[in-house]
Amino acid sequence: MMKKQPVTIYTVAKEANVSMATVSRVVNGNTNVKPETRERVEAVIKELNYRPNAVARGLASKKSTTVGVVIPKITEDYFAELAAGIDDVAALYNYDMILTSLDTIHQQPVQVIQSMLAKQVDGIIFMGHDLSAELQAEFDNSSIPVLVAGSVVDDEKLPSVRIDYAAAAKDAINLLADHGHEKIGLLVGYDQTAINAKGRIPAYKEVLAARGLEADDQNVFVGHDSYQEAYDLAKQILAQGITALFVSDDLMAAGVLNALTDQGVQVPADFEIIAGNGTSTAHLTRPMLTTIDQPMYDLGAISMRLLTKMMKETDQEQATEDQSVVLPHEIVVRQSTRQ
Question: Which SUPFAM superfamilies does the UniProt entry name for this protein (predicted)?
Fold first, then answer.
């Protein structure tokens, strides 16, 4: 049996009796084609089931019509839900999405970015944490726009779409303090990243100080976004007399919750927990987690819409001016806090 030959732009041009340039203009939506010629080419494209190669299209338009999306871990619900919003809007604007994770054993983060840039993407949405010096250099030397979604990084030049993480932390700590807790803890993924070092941790300490409560560094815990580490920390958290906890990540909150349950601690009667992301994990635990509710789909969708605007700008400095968007958040009370 003979192997089926791939359908190329040359095949379409030959069948439609036009030049390859004409086929390219039709594929790229160029209006400088006679209606009857366009109809003939489109009919052949449909008949042959021709699917234009994005890179090939880019040779004519100088655009690849692809965007790169970088996430820390492919398994994290939070970033997966943001990516869904990005993908829907990308499709609306006829962009393909290349998704890649920084958590790979095959490449260092800077190599992941270099590989993506080599694919000639038109823009990048970065959903990681802080940038290393090497990553910053890659982004600075690149001519394409880069936007941060659903996070905060230590490069204030990059536009972002996010919630106010410090304000969200304050709301959570205030709610726990309103419930009469005198010793409230904070569990974050990493204490050196900007989102925590400049956002959640100072906010936590500010609220406690304002309310005359103990703001001890020993009550700030680091769990590296790990369920197991959070589970193991629960015993230490209890030993320090803490009775309420704000956790930056839902999966870590689930780890603490399960550990407390295993130790016979009643949640929320004896211990209250608020989680920081509002992913589907919050609904899977028993009791269900009270969380900071982030509009995750909207964070992704607006990020992609903003990136399309940036990619159309000719002046890159103008493109990044006043283009950070802060979306609203709220606390959704479920079962891990008292009503």
Answer: lambda repressor-like DNA-binding domains (SSF47413), Periplasmic binding protein-like I (SSF53822)
Side by side, the strands of the sheet bearing 123-126 are 96-101, 66-71, 123-126, 146-149, 160-163, 325-327
The predicted pLDDT at position 2 comes to 45
- For residue 223, what are the contacts with CB-CB under 8 A and spacing of at least 6? 187, 188, 189, 229, 230, 233, 247, 249, 252, 255
pTM across the whole model? 0.81
203/336 Cα distance (integer angstroms): 22
Of the residues 43, 61, 79, the one at which a domain ends:
61
Residues 154, 209, single domain; the answer is no
Task: Give residue-wise pLDDT tens across range 161-187.
Answer: 999 999 999 999 999 999 999 999 999
* Structural domain boundaries, residue 123: 66-163+297-327
Q: 287: cis peptide before it, omega within 30°?
A: yes
